[in-house]
Amino acid sequence: MTTILRGNIIHAPAFGTLETIPRGYLVLEDGIIQGVFPDLPERYGGCPVEDCGQALIMPSFADLHLHAPQYPMLGMGMDLPLLDWLDTYTFRTEARFEDTDYARRVYRQLARELIAWGTTRVAMFSSRHTDATLILMEELENAGVTGYVGKVNMDRSSGPAQEGTEESVRETLRWLENCHFAHIKPILTPRFTPSCSDGLLEALGKLAAERNLPVQSHLSENTGEITWVRELHPDCGQYWETYDKYGLWKPGTLMAHCVYSDRREQEAMAGSGVWAVHCAASNLNLCSGTAPVRELIARGVHVALGSDIAGGDQLAMSRAAVMAIRASKIRRMEAGGDFLTVPEAYYLGSTAGHLYFGGGAGFEIGHKLHAIVVDDSSLPEPARELTLAERFERSIYLMEKEHIRAVYSEGRLLPRPADGR
How far apart, in whole angstroms, are the C-alpha atoms of residue 389 and residue 16? Predict the structure, then answer.
């Protein structure tokens, strides 16, 4: 089936590159991109066209780091440093997800809210609870979200959310045996080194190798955390080595934060194909620092963005992109260098994330469509006619849910949930 969308097409096929096609045509066959054209080729002349008028047609967002069970605590504990915040709020909130009815209510709202904000791909942490994790995966699948979800593993220093080592491994296997979803796949998720014993990390490393499973965790987020890791693993010169020695440091591993990753750690990431997920809002809210995004990219590390709710206080990835820009300006004022531009931050929050999941660079031919249609007509009337690049910039800064007219995921036009509920 041929589908043709017409509108103002904007995408970022490469870091720092923004391409705009005024009133162009986006052609799909069975949801797969066939091309973007300024004028419709004759061979499609008889096909119906879905005209989006003056709206912006853009690739959707991808959120590569967020904690689903922290959704109920958005905007809470923002005056605490990371480790205190975990003990005071996070572990207690996550323990609540032993209640599957509560999990169903929260995760249904979260999944619909993601789509309402134009996020169609995720790499997400659940809690330690197998049944709640399966509910999360089901609700994401039903809403049209795609990507990875991980049952969190943590057998020490995790308060009421903690589990035993054998229980953690056993429940991880039970969870994997029940992961039968079309668009939501499992990812192994040791929370971070301080909350996982050596025995648990070793078991997860073996499981990752045996089943060829991806891995996600945290790295070098906070100076207190780094000191703690050094005390727990005196045989490791740097934080990343605590994952490497158990087989969890491998191509495609997602490491959130990397605020204090120095040159050696960055080179280890690049050499092993480990991705950095920049979570600017969380890093500023919890006073962790500002990540060296340009250094990471310059050394060949793949970088994408994460909302990191609820350390990050905004689920919308347009706002995560804005926070990445602001954090880079803070870094520039402190240490010099160039800040991130709007097209660069959008690339990290959209194209880079899609590439992680095997998607295309922008609206690349041969890939299933992940896109949003943004109607910016209700934004303040400008004093002059804006270029598409200016309208794009303004939309990234000012976009609300109501401006997103349509969302496409895996080539499918998704139903729009009312108010994300």
Answer: 13
Enumerate residue ranges in the chain where pLDDT < 70.
Answer: 417-421
Residues in the chain: 421
Q: How far is CA 91 from CA 87, 176, 182, 356, in A?
A: 6, 23, 30, 29
Residue 146's beta-bridge partner residues?
121
How far apart (Å, rounded) are the C-alpha atoms in residues 100 and 349?
Answer: 31
Dmax (CA) for the chain in angstroms is 69
Pairing of strands 189-190, 2-14: unpaired
Q: Are 269 and 301 in contact (CB under 8 A)?
A: yes
Report the Cα 140 to chain-centroid distance in Å.
14
pLDDT at 74: 95
**374 and 405 Cβ atoms separated by less than 8 Å:** yes
**pTM greater than the 0.90 cutoff:** yes
Strand 17-29 versus strand 2-14 pairing type: antiparallel
Dihedral sign (CA 164, 170, 174, 176): positive
The predicted structure's pLDDT at residue 161: 72
Distance CA 317, CA 306 (A): 8
Burial 323-335 (b: 16+ CB within 10 A, else e): bbbbbbeebeeee
Angstrom distance (rounded) from CA 133 to CA 150: 7
Dihedral sign computed on CA atoms, order 381, 385, 390, 392:
positive
Residues linked to residue 70 through DSSP beta bridges, in sequence order? none
pLDDT given at position 421: 39
45, 62 contact by CB (below 8 A): no
**How does strand 404-409 pair with strand 412-413?**
antiparallel
User: Residue 418 has what pLDDT?
Assistant: 55
Return d(Cα 47, Cα 44) in angstroms, integer.
5
Strands 49-59 and 371-374: antiparallel
